[in-house]
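Pasting as-is:
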Amino acid sequence: MKLVYDVSDKPKFSKTIVFALQQMIAIMAATLLVPMIVTSYGLEADPSAALFGAGIGTLVYIFFTKKKSPVFLGSSFTFLGAYAASVGQNFGYLGIILGVLFAGLVYVVIGLIIKFVGSGWVNKLMPAVIIGPIVALIGLSLSGTATSWMSTNGGDTYSLITILVGAVTFFAIVIASVKGSDNIKLIPFIVGIGVGYVFALVLTLIGMAAGIESLKILSFDSFSSAFVPFSVSSIVKMPDFFFLKAIQEKGWQTLSGADIGSIALIYVPIGVVELAQHIADHKNLGNIINKDLITDPGLDNTLFGDGVGSIVGSIFGGAANTTYGESIGCVAITGNASIITIMVASLGCMILSFFTPFVALINSIPKCVMGGACVALYGFIAVSGLQMLRKVDLGNSKNLFIVSGILVTGIGGLTLNFGFNEMTQGPILTVTALAVALIFGIVTNLIVNNGKLVADSSETDKK
């Protein structure tokens, strides 16, 4: 696609600050949500610390990828089941840090292998006929979160009012992106989320004045907890870093060798499963910025960056990091791929994690507003995947079976579950629908091509 700012471009300082803020807003809701969920499992995970961890993890990733891959790393939801299992088996804070360490090392080991054997096999294993629908699935699989947030505002009660707020947010983003001036087109999410927030605030004030509960969309709880009672920590507060909690807990004195082995068994498979999404994300981002990231900076370096960045992020914030679709979608919609923007956003997250009012403001953004924004973000991810299929002949039955298998198993949510977690009443390990869809695609590709890996789907004979 045509970019307004390429990866190496350096926008003016004032613009960079605004662009970075937009990236931060795009990734923050999900990044802050993961530690909140972990807290519900029984461990205290500070959202501010997770924000700091995401920022420093992203800087690590940028270092390993030689400032060539403009994407932000945020808290990964894939590890939630593993966190619950760790808590359920009393592995504590150190158990989670060690678990993410094991998962990150999987990336590092695979990266080392690729460094010596090369990454040429990736294009053969996952040609456009496979990677296109896989990328589309990433966006489509996230769409349920966007519509759920719009419909219930993150709660359990369906509301037409919150859908209206989400729709207003989405349409404001569309208008800013399509009808706005050149500068406004670069910050559609700031405009859209701002409009949605003000609209939600107006409805909430009306609801409070008239006593109409359904109109009370915006919660002021984050401000109350931050400023009541007022103290120095209401303005500046050091995040409760996860490694400090592990030190206070003295987990190394209680974890046995068998415990560490159990932790590895819980987390290592997740690292393997996440490899599929890692490749798909970088294929998609490369398609958006018109560069082959699998070749340059290389899949080995992106894996090193993602793995080590995730480990560092967990040490500080308690949550493993992963490349964020919201960040990729932001790059796609705005046409701003400047790596400086991502770096400033990373530093901004680290700095602002110490400022209580900022975290309170972000936490106060209604889920329905973020849901409306995510309709655009996730939609662009799905569409970018479909764009990869433009050169694929879907009249060819070979290609048709490959794409069909991927889309139906992925959208249908076919997963592979192993073990049973008594705490969550769910499986210990789940091979995600995305990974299962990829397996179906690869196996189907091998079957229709008589066991041969074909780099370009156009090479298949037409039937």
